[in-house]
Design goal:
The protein is α+β, with helices and mostly antiparallel strands. Helix content is 38%, strand content 16%. Strands 2-3-1-4 form a four-stranded antiparallel sheet, with helices on both faces. It comes from Stieleria varia.
């Protein structure tokens, strides 16, 4: 049973529960633009797979007490605009999204090439005032990629957000083998 602090203090000692729980006073609005690609940036997210994959990823985010505000991408990568819970470490949340979605995709669609995500990801904090712009950016992925590759887009995002990187290591494990 939950009791507000002022209500508890107004109770007689004989009326008070032995253990009083207080409603949490933690308030967050943790919004992130998250980007990751398929392993080797292969074009594995087909039009048949895409809507079901996006729906499944949304379910994973909800299972982790978050909400998926937008999702989009093209055949070789996805962008998520998500509100995540502080209850789960950020890296754990992304690991669960990637592991569970790739496992589900392989079991459900049995693709020609085993589906895997790249090892890492990009994640960028988003202010509430930037949500409309980030949403539109994610929704317009098809048109963005008529002009630039995922690699160019990703580099530009890192630079825009002040994230230092070494070019030679950026996609080192991601080349076709």
């Amino acid at each position: 049973m939950f009791w507000k602090a002022r209500q508890t203090s107004q109770l007689r000692s004989s009326d008070r529960p032995e253990e009083v729980e207080h409603v949490s006073s933690t308030h967050t609005n943790l919004l992130f633009h998250i980007v990751f690609s398929t392993k080797y940036r292969r074009d594995l997210i087909t039009p048949e797979i895409q809507p079901r994959l996006y729906e499944y990823i949304g379910g994973i985010v909800r299972d982790q007490h978050g909400s998926l505000l937008e999702i989009g991408g093209i055949a070789n990568h996805v962008h998520l605009l998500a509100k995540l819970s502080p209850r789960i470490a950020f890296s754990d949340a992304i690991r669960v999204v990637k592991a569970n979605s790739s496992k589900w995709l392989n079991e459900t669609f049995q693709p020609k090439h085993t589906f895997r995500w790249q090892r890492g990801y990009g994640a960028f904090s988003v202010s509430l005032s930037s949500v409309p712009a980030v949403t539109q950016y994610i929704q317009n992925q098809e048109s963005h990629h008529t002009k630039r590759t995922f690699e160019d887009e990703y580099r530009a995002m890192l630079i825009r957000h002040g994230i230092q990187f070494e070019e030679r290591y950026l996609f080192e494990d991601e080349h076709f083998q």
